[in-house]
Write a structure and sequence with these properties.
Length: 169
């Protein structure tokens, strides 16, 4: 075999490996990453839209804020459902836990749409709790308690005023 033939075959093999790698990336890896991106946007929405509901106590959100939240929530539900069709052999990937199960994706999408439809405190709280549990998200339920735990603070309450301990440990 001549030197030129070896170079040509090596170049052909390199191009073939590159093309096969790109096919694997486009068909399998990108859809999995897209689903993870949608999950990340849902985690963001759980916190970002937490205070928006039609019957929120205190300062009520404007109609524009409610409409923006509804549009975002419906969009997230649609984006999540679309990940089921983008990945060939989805069920196989969910069995080996590279993707969420179809049942989980459908339940999360349903809860997002229910929250979007009713925009009530009850629907919002149920959706946030259920979605965080279904997707195994580390959701902050109470910002102040989470902040205390993060800062390792002990807040002095009126009952503790008589004790000699410092409020900060």
């Amino acid at each position: 075999m001549s030197e030129a033939m070896k170079i040509a075959l090596t170049a052909l093999a390199a191009v073939l490996v590159f093309v096969i790698g790109q096919i694997i990336v486009r068909i399998f890896i990108e859809p999995l990453q897209e689903q993870r991106g949608v999950i990340g946007r849902i985690a963001h929405a759980l916190i970002f839209y937490h205070g928006i509901s039609k019957d929120a106590p205190g300062d009520r959100p404007t109609r524009e804020q409610v409409a923006a939240a509804q549009t975002a929530l419906r969009g997230l539900a649609a984006d999540l459902r679309s990940t089921l069709t983008c990945l060939p052999w989805y069920r196989g990937f969910s069995i080996v836990r590279l993707a969420y199960s179809q049942k989980t994706v459908k339940q999360v999408a349903y809860r997002l749409m229910r929250w979007e439809l009713f925009m009530s405190e009850h629907a919002k709280n149920d959706a946030i709790t259920d979605i965080a549990k279904l997707l195994n998200l580390d959701y902050i339920k109470d910002e102040w308690i989470e902040f205390q735990a993060m800062m390792d603070l002990k807040v002095q309450t009126p009952a503790d005023e008589g004790s000699s301990e410092s409020p900060v440990s």
